[in-house]
Design a protein that fits this description.
Blueprint (H helix, E strand, L loop, with lengths): L1 H17 L4 E2 L2 E7 L7 E4 H5 L12 E3 L7 E4 L4 E4 L5 H4 L7 E8 L4 E10 L12 E7 L7 E3 L13 E6 L5 E7 L5 E7 L10 E10 L6 E11 L12 E7 L7 E4 L8 H4 L1 E5 L5 H6 E3 L5 E4 L10 E10 L7 E10 L7 E7 L2 E3 L7 E8 L9 E4 L6 E4 L5 E6 L10 E10 L6 E11 L7 E2 L3 E7 L7 E4 L2 E2 L9 E5 L3 E2 L2 E2 L4 E3 L5 E4 L10 E10 L6 E11 L7 E4 L7 E7 L7 E4 L1 E3 L9 E8 L5 E3 L5 E4 L10 E10 L6 E11 L4 H10 L2 H6 L1 H28 L29 H4 L18 E4 L8 H6 L9 E4 L4 E3 L9 H14 L1
Parallel strand pairs: 2-8, 9-15, 16-22, 24-30, 32-41, 43-50
Antiparallel strand pairs: 1-2, 3-6, 4-7, 5-6, 7-8, 10-13, 11-14, 12-13, 14-15, 17-20, 18-21, 19-20, 21-22, 23-25, 25-28, 26-29, 27-28, 29-30, 31-34, 33-39, 35-40, 36-37, 38-39, 40-41, 42-45, 44-48, 46-49, 47-48, 49-50, 51-52, 52-53
Length: about 850
Amino acid sequence: MVLFKIYRLFKWQTFFLFSFWELASGHIRYSILEELQLGAFVGKIADDLGSDVKQLSARNFRIVSGARKQYLKVNLENGVLFVNERIDRDQFCGPSLSCVLPLEAVIENPLNLYHIEVEILDVNDNSPRFPNNQFRLEISEVAAPGARFRLESAHDPDVGTNSVQTYQLSQNDYFILDVQTSSEDEKLPFLVLEKTLDREKQSTHRLVLFAKDGGVPPRFSTAQIIILVQDANDNAPVFPQSVYRVSLLENVPKGAIVIKLNATDLDASSNGEIVYSFSSHTPVGVRELFNLDSRTGEIRVKGNLDFEENSSFKINVQAMDKGPHATPVYCDVLVNIIDVNDHVPEVALTSVSSSVREDALAGTVVALFSAADKDSGENGQVKCHIPEKLPFTLDFSLKNYYRVLTQKPLDREHISKYEIIITCSDSGTPPLISKKTIMVEVSDINDNAPRFTQPLYTTYVMENNAIGTSIFSVTAFDPDGGQNARLNYSILETRVHGASVAGYISIKSESGVIFSQRSFDYEKLKHFQVEVQVQDCGTPSLTSNTSVDIIILDQNDNVPLIVQPLPEFGSTAIETMSRFAEPGYLVTKVSAIDADSGQNARLSYQILQATDPRLFTISPDTGEIWAIRSIVNKDATKQRLVIVVKDCGTRPLSATMTIILSVIEDHTEILSVASNLSEDPEFAYDTSIFLVISLGVISTILFVVLITLSFKVHKNRNGFGDHNCVLSTCCCFEARNSLNGIQKASRNLQIPPNYVEVFGGDPLSQSYRYETCSTSNSKARDFMFPKMCNSSAGKINVRTETMDTENNSGSSNPEYFRSTVNNEVRRF
């Protein structure tokens, strides 16, 4: 950083020193440094030309540079010539010592032309550069001192003293630097050998060459010189030893290495590359038994060695390099052959049993074999054994023979086949081992009963199944083999609902697959259990049993049955309601049952068709039908509702019924509605006058009674569950809570409710309750409502179709109850 600041200071001082002008016959010359910044001052050209600065713009004063870049421009306001483009002298003029930029200045009115020369002065802004950062020289180690080697010159784009002025060489013991000057003043470096080289001592020399220029401050660069010393064949191969001793076993395999010779040569390349060979003194027999690798010096066994034939060998080896005037050297390799135990024991099988029963007694002979060794002495002594974990043992009671005996009873289901490895070894050093393997199969006896995988199986069968289809399979396993493992399945005789199980299911004896023999009905049979027996084919045969619990799954195969209200005509029921009913009035309740179970028996109610869909709604869960709004005069007096009851099965089933709902003005219209169903129109027309008169009288009586009844009901509505009569002349109804809290049946109408109350969410547990009280003073009420109780209400159970009564004689029969109600309605 300090050097850079000194350079900048020197650069500007030089600029002010050499920037000048001269005027001679219209010729102006300036001198500036290269690499000046844009806008740098060159000269006051207006003053130098004797022109008025104020007239430069008016006279269109300009600098003409021809095809060159506009390196310089004139400020027309102050008449100063300044640098407009960066000027690199090294690119502009190259190595030329003189670098001038010619310009033309033109001024009009009158027209004058001035020649301007701007000399570009060099700045030491480039360092010397070598063509390569690294040079490689190869010099033979036999080169004489004083030998000269030309080095690459450095190049500096600067000129004069700013170019390369000198070279220097790093300190070393073998070379010096000689710098000469060419006719073009170029400095030429030469490397001079000062001391003889020795490649074996140092094969590579690394030097650093410095190139410096004459600038202030000076710049320099470096290049590395790598000198590779070339080898000369001035060394002969050398063996570390003159005699080598090696010992080999006589049974050494072919290709085994005997020894690897390693002669060394200090020379390099072909001068140091050694070739090995047998000398002329090596016998032919040795050449047949041993092989010598000429490149690596490895001696390997080529033939079969036999201690009994020859116990030692002498191998003479020659080594020579590949250089010129090579000199051979020799060494001897003495090979000593060692006798070894080279015969393995021989095992001969005399007799082998292919199979043994698993219940064979201990000591049963399995195999008989002999073992011998051709060697003598300890090398010929043989000992044999078998693995200790096997249920077998070896007996050597017979001379030169071994017997393989069973040691304990066998279990074929645990291990069905044994691999007995007989191992025999001699007493040599090291001992030689021979092995023989015999296979013994254990034959099966029927000692295992078949076993089912589970003591109890559970299977699920959808009702309405196809007859003859498979519904389940049982699996048994018998660890025995062959015929003892062949299994037959059967179903033990048992009774299902009093009938033989064979009428329900069957089983395939070979596979254990169970088939249905009938189509099951969940509503009649929900589950049953059978016993399955498996028997093997052994002698004697063995059996095992298991239980199969067959559960019948419900299918949505029963249509909902509507039980309330009871239809009067086919699938049509008749109901009435007052014209004065308020919104939320409970019109009636539809109840249905479904013989299925679960989701298949879960029912929902819906109004399918209605005379006026905006007048009534139904609870989808309870089937209660309520009035949505009040009845107006334009509404029909007879409303027809088609109710559909649908279950929640996968494929839902449904039932429908029609309810004819008559809208009455008051309670007397019940008579006309009921009589209209049984009487013809002519009869109704004849009695219309009588009915009008009767209606007036009855309406008056009922109005008084209903006012009294409403007061009592409002006062004691929480006590209706006690089933006591409120008045001696009224019919008492049990209090009810509908799903949505609407209970206006007895409050909105001025007559007692005209529907049968249903309790509970389960259709099978629904009950109907009627409560009436008779008096001697209420003939009209006796006529309209049948006497059905004395002091407490009777309950009709839909599930059992019986009436539960207390102190109510003569009315426990449901048929009697139905007939009584129907007769009274007809009378009404």
